[in-house]
Amino acid sequence: MSTFRARRAIPSVLNTPTAIRINESTNITNSDAERALTEFIDASDAIAAGLEQSSKNTGLSKNNDSSAVLSQLKRIQRNL
């Protein structure tokens, strides 16, 4: 007789918890959100391609599989 085991999801950037503490929030316009998102996506693409950009210090690292996250961010960018 076999026992049923629920499959455990492999930890990734999409399903692991992150702790964020918000001290203050302000509303921004869609153009400001798009600008910040564009800078982040461009920096992530440059990091993934191995290009050194000293002016860009944000972005997803190339050490993890961030293609799903990056494609979702690009979808959000297109909607803005």
TrEMBL record:
InterPro entries to which the protein is assigned, alphabetical: RNA_polI_Rpa14
Gene3D superfamilies attached to this UniProt entry: 6.10.250.3390
Entry protein name: Uncharacterized protein
